[in-house]
Amino acid sequence: MELSVQAKIEQLVDYIMKHCLWQFHSRAWDREKQNEGILSKTTQLLCDEPVEKETPADKCYWADAVLLAEGFQEKYAWLKSMSKEEIKEVMQGLKERMEFLTIRGSLNEELKDPRY
């Protein structure tokens, strides 16, 4: 049985929640930068596209993305049968879901404290 895009996204969210500490930065803007940096580079790796590693931040996000891409590929065989466009769709949905769970939908008021 073919999984829906949403089911695939939720499997990837579950993996991140159980295996990745980068989702727990204490400020919303840190979480936004981490989500964008790591998930965009993970997408590039999964699609065999070049990954920018010019800045120290790029290198840090790339290192996390390598581990994430390897974990996804090892655990979720359905990735192998997907086109690049399908992978990008799932990864965009994953990014949106992570932003909701870790930023917009979070009850942690410290994320939005301007003095923090």
> Rg to the nearest angstrom?
14 Å
Strand content: under 5%
What is the straight-line distance between the termini? 47 Å
Low-confidence runs (pLDDT<50, min 5 residues)? none
Shape by Cα distribution: globular
Biggest β-sheet description: none
SS-derived structural category: mainly alpha
Question: Based on the structure, what is the oligomeric state of the protein chains?
Answer: single chain
* Helix percent band: 55-70%
Number of helices: 4
Mean pLDDT: 92
What does this protein look like?
With 116 residues, the chain is mainly α. It has helices at residues 5-19, 28-46, 56-75, 84-104. It has a domain at 28-106. It is 65% helix and 0% strand. Helix 2 (28-46) packs antiparallel against helix 4. The radius of gyration is 14 Å and the shape is globular.
Task: Give a short summary of the structure.
The protein has 116 residues and is mainly α. The protein has helices at 5-19, 28-46, 56-75, 84-104.
Topology:
Elements: H1 5-19, H2 28-46, H3 56-75, H4 84-104
Helix pairs in contact: 1-4, 2-3, 2-4
Key phrases:
mainly alpha, 65% helix, globular
